[in-house]
From TrEMBL:
SUPFAM superfamilies: F-box domain, RNI-like. It comes from Triticum aestivum. This is F-box domain-containing protein.
Length: 297
């Protein structure tokens, strides 16, 4: 049998190569890995469509070190902050105005967000987990991002004035993700009052009160997607489940991956693992066993 014909990778259609490059990851593209391949792959890595979504959450200094070596710069001659700015400059240039989403690393600061606002005013979404940006600086950046549809930010930026500014500047804003340790009814009220048109809300890995969840479900009338997975205390009641039934997606699984936390209705003991019942439940099971088989039919 004759061996099957082998076609070179470079003959793949350009659109398919671009789709592949968009999934490679910005750090790898920025490090120069793609340009070292054939001309077809190199061209795909430079196509603006491959840079519509730039994920830099895994960005490290190694990326900038490789680039610095290629330009003759010495190790340590530029700071990590400046190196990240340089890579954002490259990404913005290659995107040629088509960048839609940017996910920044935790150490990104206000200069990086302002750079994006100035270079990519048509940005639809950004993730900015830093805790060190002032409300005034953040609002200044938002003013330049009037096409923004969603963002992921730290709880330090969740206040009425900031979110109201987002609502007023970004008429299509529908999606919010918050990095928070604890969410109470007051924070929920701030989000509901300032962003009443939210369709998607994500607050994962947060200790959240039942009152806060109910506030979201009662006040955000256009909400379709709610993710509060990874919570540390149980706040999922039958009332919450009933109210959430109108949503297209409600994600609330426990961070311990053991189902809903259990509270004994008799002794009130908090139990994390349903497979290890509290002492009260064990006593009842022992008494049932001592009583012998049930006589009921």
């Amino acid at each position: 049998m004759a061996p099957a014909a082998v076609r070179p990778w470079g003959e793949l259609q350009h659109d398919l190569l671009v789709a592949i490059m968009s999934r490679v990851g910005a750090p790898d593209l920025l490090s120069g890995g793609a340009p070292r391949t054939c001309s077809a792959w190199w061209a795909a890595a430079r196509d603006p469509l491959a840079w519509r979504r730039v994920d830099l959450r895994d960005w490290t200094a190694r990326t900038s070190a490789r680039r610095a070596a290629g330009t003759g710069a010495t190790r340590g001659s530029i700071s990590v902050q400046a190196a990240l700015t340089g890579d954002l400059e490259v990404a913005a240039t290659r995107a040629d105005g088509r960048m839609e989403a940017v996910l920044l690393p935790e150490f990104a600061d206000e200069e990086h967000l302002m750079f994006l606002a100035e270079r990519s005013p048509n940005l639809h979404y950004f993730s900015f987990p830093t805790t060190c940006m002032t409300s005034d600086d953040f609002c200044m950046a938002i003013t330049k991002l009037q096409s923004l549809k969603g963002m992921a930010v730290d709880e330090s930026l969740i206040n009425y004035d900031v979110l109201l500014h987002v609502h007023q500047c970004c008429t299509d804003f529908l999606e919010l993700k918050v990095f928070a340790l604890y969410v109470d009814e007051d924070m929920a009220s701030v989000i509901c009052e300032s962003l009443p048109r939210l369709k998607k809300l994500e607050i994962p890995n947060s200790d959240m009160s039942c009152a806060a969840i109910i506030k979201f479900l009662d006040c955000l009338e256009e909400l379709e997607y709610l993710d509060i997975s990874g919570y540390e205390t149980s706040a999922i009641s039958s009332s919450v489940l009933h109210k959430a039934s109108r949503l297209k997606a409600f994600i609330w699984n426990s961070k311990f991956e053991l189902g809903e936390f259990m509270d004994c209705s008799n002794c009130g003991e908090h139990n994390i693992n349903p497979q290890e019942p509290c002492k009260c439940t064990m006593d009842h099971k022992v008494m049932d066993w001592l009583a012998g088989p049930s006589q009921t039919a």
